[in-house]
Structures are given as C-alpha cells and as structure tokens.
Design goal:
This protein is mainly β and 157 residues long. The protein is built from one helix and seven strands; from the N terminus they run ββββββαβ. The model has no long low-confidence stretch (mean pLDDT 97).
C-alpha cells in the first residue's frame, strides 16, 4: 500500500487533520491510497484509519470503508463517491465520513491506515449493517482477511 498524501512513518499533511475537531487548517480530507498484490481470492476490500493512542481506553476509529469491489486498487484523496456498493461505516464520532487527526496538544499519535482484502464480497454476509461500529466490523471480518497492507502516519499538535 502506498499514498501520495502520507509516507509510511511520516506526518499527516494539514489536509488530513480535523477541522471538525478544531485543528487549525484541518480539512478532514481522506488520504489518497493505492494498493497492489491482492490475492486472487480477494472479493472485496476494507480500508480504515485507526488511532490506538487516542486518549480513550479503546483508541479512536477515524474512518472505515467496506465492500470496496475486488477490482479496485485506489481511493483518491478526499473521496466523496465510493466505487461500486462500497459504503462508509460510522466512525467513533458516529459520522459516516473521514475525521482527520486531532491528537491532544503536545501529543504524537500513530495512525494505522490499512487496506484488508476479504474472501467475501460484502460485510452484509456477516450480518453487518449501517449501525455497526468499526470495532464490531473488524472483529467479524478477521477470519475473512486474506491479505493486509498498513501505512503508519503520525499526527502531532
């Protein structure tokens, strides 16, 4: 997995910070992501952004898109129209959109940006619907993941 917006181990660009959470210059713009090498058994993809260091006992899910068709290999920056039957799971702010980085002042958080290839075409096959949380989706897809790519981005204030 690669991105034109963030390098593995590098800082998020200002566009990937959260204006909704009050970060000056933040745009809540999802990063561009591209992936290759998915196995032939991949029937769909899940993309997510998770901050395990957020100041909560369970971290913070910033974004999750599910049911990305198997033929897809890229999501553009700031995507608004998802491919095929893909849909956005409500994040931990309960919004079905990308929420950018917003670590507390003085903090440095590491964000796991991942793409997971699944052996199922839709998470609805697992009984997952629009009210599911990213943690619930992650738990239920675990046995269906056939490949995974991760970029770690850094957010700091």
């Amino acid at each position: 997995m690669t991105s034109t917006d963030v390098v593995d181990g590098g800082d998020f660009a200002p566009a990937q910070y959260s204006g909704l959470f009050g970060v000056p210059g933040g745009e809540d713009r999802s990063p561009q992501l591209q992936w290759t090498g998915a196995p032939e058994t991949a029937k769909s993809f899940v993309v997510s952004v998770y901050d395990p260091e957020a100041p909560t006992p369970s971290g913070f899910w910033h974004w999750m898109v599910v049911d990305i068709p198997a033929g897809t290999s890229e999501l553009p920056s700031g995507i608004t129209e998802l491919p095929g039957n893909a849909w956005t799971v409500k994040n931990d702010a309960r919004a079905a959109q990308f929420i950018g980085s917003a670590p507390p002042a003085g903090a440095v958080d590491h964000y796991a940006i991942s793409v997971q290839a699944l052996d199922i075409a839709s998470v609805t096959e697992l009984g997952i619907d629009a009210e599911a949380t990213p943690a619930f989706v992650s738990f239920n897809i675990l046995s269906h993941v056939v490949a995974r790519g991760v970029i770690t981005a850094i957010g700091r204030q």
